[in-house]
Amino acid sequence: MKNLFVISMALFLFVLNHSGKAQTQEQYEHYNYLVLTKQIQQLQPIILTAEALATEDGPGFGDFQVVICGQTVNELTDKPMMKKFTDKAEQSNIQLVICGFSLEKFEVDRDELPEGLEIVENGILYSFQLQKKGYLSIEL
């Protein structure tokens, strides 16, 4: 009787342990990433990081978004400078997202922005919403 109890407990703990691992693997079937930055110059290392993660994650690589906020939005209208970033981001499946509040605060004309940039009304709120969806995030 005692042996039956010990074997039952061992079996129960084994099943419990493996069900937790399966849930963790399902939870992270795809890795989604978010970077919040206040500096355009950070785009080059961010893109390189995204490319390295895509290689490392393989088919598990999901979405990669960069939210740009703050005074640096003034630099977004420099279309020749931004073209190298937008082209590289597009090639690497990186979405560049611009904070609408920052555009308004620093009086940047949305029509002067290069193509390929998405504008959200509130970049910080948008970042929190992605974090709630499980995105791994960092602020630079």
Account of the 3D structure:
By secondary structure, the chain is of the alpha/beta class. It has a single domain (30-139), classed as DsrEFH-like (Hypothetical Protein Ychn, Chain: A, 3-Layer(aba) Sandwich), CATH 3.40.1260.10. The protein has 5 helices and 5 strands, in the order H-E-H-E-H-E-H-E-H-E. It has a 5-stranded parallel β-sheet with strand order 4-3-2-1-5, sandwiched between helices. Strand 3, helix 4 and strand 4 (117-120) form a beta-alpha-beta unit.
How is the secondary structure organized here?
Layout: H1 2-27, E1 31-37, H2 43-57, E2 61-68, H3 79-91, E3 94-99, H4 100-105, E4 117-120, H5 123-132, E5 136-139
Parallel strand pairs: 1-2, 1-5, 2-3, 3-4
InterPro entries: DsrEFH-like
Protein name: Sulfur reduction protein DsrE
Keywords: Signal
Taken as a percent bin, the fraction of beta residues is: 15-25%
Largest sheet data: 5 strands, parallel
| Shape verdict | globular
Would you identify the CATH H-level superfamily?
Answer: DsrEFH-like
Q: How do the strands of the widest beta sheet line up side by side?
A: 4-3-2-1-5
- The structural domain count equals 1
Tally of DSSP β-strands: 5
Helix segment count? Answer: 5
What is the second-level CATH architecture?
Answer: 3-Layer(aba) Sandwich
Structural class: alpha/beta
Query: What radius of gyration results from the CA coordinates?
Result: 22 Å
Low-confidence stretches: 4-13, 18-26
Helix/strand order: HEHEHEHEHE
Q: CATH class, anyone?
A: Alpha Beta
CATH topology group: Hypothetical Protein Ychn, Chain: A
Helix fraction?
40-55%
Average pLDDT metric = 85
How far is it from the N-terminal to the C-terminal residue, by CA? 61 Å
Signal peptide: 1-24
Keywords: Signal
InterPro entries: DsrEFH-like
Protein name: Sulfur reduction protein DsrE
